[in-house]
Amino acid sequence: MYPRPIPEDARVQRALYLGGVALVVILWLLPLLAVMLTSIRSNEELMAGNYWGWPQKFSLIENYKAVFEQTAMLRFFLNSLLITIPSVIGVLILSTLTGFVLSRYPFCGSNLIFALFVGGNFLPAQIMMIPVRDLMVRLGLYDTVYALIIFHIAFQTGFATLFMRNFIAALPGELFQAARAEGASPFQTLRHVVLPLVRPALAALAILTFTFVWNDYFWAIVLTQSDAVKPVTAGLNNLRGEWTSAWNIVSAATIFVALPPVVMFFMMQKHFVAGLTMGAVKG
Amino acid sequence: MSSVELRKVDKHYGSYHALKTVDLKIEKGEFVVMVGPSGCGKSTLLKTIAGLEAINSGQIVINGRDVTREEPGDRGIAMVFQSYALYPHMTVAENMGFGLRMAKRPRTEIEAAVKRAARILRLEEQLDKRPKQLSGGQRQRVAIGRAITRSPEVFLFDEPLSNLDAALRTQMRVELSGLHAQLGSTMIYVTHDQVEAMTMADRIVILNKGRIEQVGSPLELYANPANIFVAGFLGAPRMNFIEAKAVSVEESAVSVAAAGLPALSFGGIDVGGFSAGDTLTIGIRPEALHVEPSNRAMPVFSSRVRLVEQLGRETVLYVDASPLQATNSDSGTGNFTLQLNKVSAIGVGATLQVGFEIGDAYLFGPDGRTLTPRKPVAST
Lengths: 283, 380
Fold this sequence. Notes:
The structure holds two protein chains of two kinds. By secondary structure, chain A is mainly alpha-helical.
């Protein structure tokens, strides 16, 4: 029951197949399309009920200008960057260290630790809502960006460790033996051998983590309160409260908020160099 | 002073006993080749010398210094791996200078060492390339170059040629021997290829199941294997073995019988450890079997040719001599292997009288120990 290629001459099946694919793609993109369309309509048009038709008037610039002038989105955006960038960096550093040790330096209990990292991923994060909030209040970090940074680093490092451990474990073992025979210390091995070779993995992980943290809404509303700290996801919600009827502005803000992960993807793309380890061993 | 000395080295992997009380002394400047079948512990032994594998008991001494507890980088060794283990993100020059860079040596010293190694290995043109852009032979040379730049006391090679094609392997073999002559360093070389062992080694160490079976010069081991394992391991095609019964055991002489073979009497035998009625093994090298011998005194058996391999200068015949059976033969069929040093017109199906000099045959005891007296080693 696996997908098999449809023969060239089975025209009916091919047409059905392509039609099916097109339908699914449209369904999948419909909400995004709606948001995009709405973000360039004028408010009057929306009030008049023209949701899906061709816009009579394009208010692209007005809407996006309004996002910056009439709302605190820029502040939220800045908060999101302040939360997301340190979180991503923290996760990358910690998971590279843990992944390196767990894959290359087995010690008593290392498997247990690894199992904890992996197992932690299976816990629904929501069950930690009250303890984590309580912890942050007691630490005096509630309603600061640090609360979100610390939580995201702690929570994302579990998956990231699994990811990095497996990637580093897949590197040829003789590279590590060679480095050791050459007198490189574990830290030198990490710096000069591991890091250059795991760049594609770090790039992928950076995108994943960035998207996760950037898009997080749950913890943003659990751990923050004031506008000065709120990230974009929680901020968008604010917008809805204030501008109940201004869906065009909300949509414009949504598009604006959705951009960074996309930009991040294109920035990191050049690091996905396939077969970087080729030529390391054998031919 | 010996360059490398292993004293009662033991290594376990869980319940698996990988090295069993290995004792070995390697002299300065010696080229020692360790051979053995897969899983015999040869690579493990090399890694324990390198320090990449810790040992459970025993001592490893390099240049008079006990290095058993030292890190590989402090032992004065350099290792060349089977897979080359070059860093793909570094240029050839960076790869070769890696060890010195890690030791934070001055840039000028690193450059000089890399240049010198590149000159020795004819890699001057390749210094700015990445491993990916090199051929297999060049990559192997870079790996050797990386070892040379550190000017180690001891070079360790772990099957360095097994990823190369046959022609390149022969060339690299000659180059490595030349390199040894040029550098004069101690080299320990692990391989499963007995041709590499025979051609390159000053001394061969034959390992089997974590134990050293015999140590000696290639020709010495070939002429005087200590036991049936060494006899069967060295030499291609393999030695022919015949199971035989000890009929009578006298002082330093034994007469043996095997179905299909006239009774044979061996002299100068060490007769301790077995008695009449025990099963012994006769060993005869393929080149010691003669077709239609003119010497009427030779033990002779008749056989039928099953397969002929023409190798240009030599001819290898596989013959069926039933009821006489060869055990442990290359073909696994009980056929005997004959090697003739000439092109032969003998065809499949021909019936041959095959004979051998009793002085060329070996006799192995029930425990596999060689019983026949020393044979002269071919002079070089």
